[in-house]
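Need Polyol transporter 5's 3D structure for a figure. Predict it.
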Amino acid sequence: MQGRLGDARKVLIKTSDTPEEAETRLSDIKDAAGIPEDCNDDVVTVSKKSHGEGVWKELLIHPTPSVRKVLICCIGIHFFQQSSGIDAVVLYSPRIFKKAGITNNSRLLGATVGVGFTKTLFILVATFWLDRVGRRPLLLSSVGGMIASLAVLGTGLTVVERSAEGTVMWAVAACIAAVLAYVAFFSIGLGPITWVYSSEIFPLRLRAQGTSMGVAVNRVTSGILAMTFISLYKAITIGGSFYLFAGVATIAWVFFFTYLPETRGRTLEDMGSLFGKTSHENQNSKEDDQLGQVGQVQLVTANNGHM
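Structure prediction for Polyol transporter 5:
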C-alpha cells in the first residue's frame, strides 16, 4: 500500500513455501493495490486509497449472513468465557477456600498459589495441543470439564456451609480439587481458544473492529462479574453461585457445539464456506484476501523498519 515492493518481496520470500508462491502472492497484492503487473521497482508511487469505509455499517447495520454468524460467534465465545465464572474463581479464590473451611493462613496462601501455578501450567500445555487436537474438540472438552468442576465445587461448598459438625474434610478436599480442576480445564481450552478463534474467523477488512467488539464484551462481562460476585453469593449462597456458573457453562457448551465450526488449518477462503458465505460474498472474497495480504505485508515491513 506504500509502494514498497522490494520490502514486500523480501517478506513474502520469508513467509512463503517457495519463491514461486511468493511471486504469486506479490502479484495478487500489486493487483489489489493498483500497481501495474510489469512494475518491479523496489519503491513505486501508489495512489492513496482508503479501504476502511463502511466497516461498522457492514458489521452492525447491514451484515451479510456469514458476517452476522461470525460476529455472533465472536461475541458469544467472549461472553461465555467470562460469564462461566473464571474471574470469580481466580480473584476470589482465598474467600472461596475460606468458605470451604481452610482457616490457616499458610494453607490458604498455598492453595491460592496453587491456583495461579495451575493456570500458568495448563496455558503452556494448551499451546502444544491447540493445533494438534483442534479448536473444537479442545473447547468442548474444556467446557465439559469446567461444568463438572463447578458442580463439584458447588456441592462441596454447600455441604460445608450446611454442616453443623464443623469442618467436613472430604468436602474441603473436593473444593480444593474442584477449583484446581476448573482452572486447569479453563486454561487448556476456553481461556486461550477464545482469543485465537475470534481473531481468525473475521474477514481481514473487518477483523480489527469485529475483534474489538468481542474484547469489549469480554471486559464488560468480567467487570460486572468481579463487582457483583460477593453480592451474588450472599443472595443465593456461595454453593448456589457456582451451580449458577455451571448452568451458564452448560449453555456455553451447547452454543459451542451447535454454532462454532472447526477452524484448525483452514484458510481465509475456507472461512466463508464454514460460516455460510453467499454467492455475492464469494465474488468479493478474493479482493478481501488480497487487501488482507497487503495489510499483513505492510505490518511486517513496518515492524522490520523499527527493529
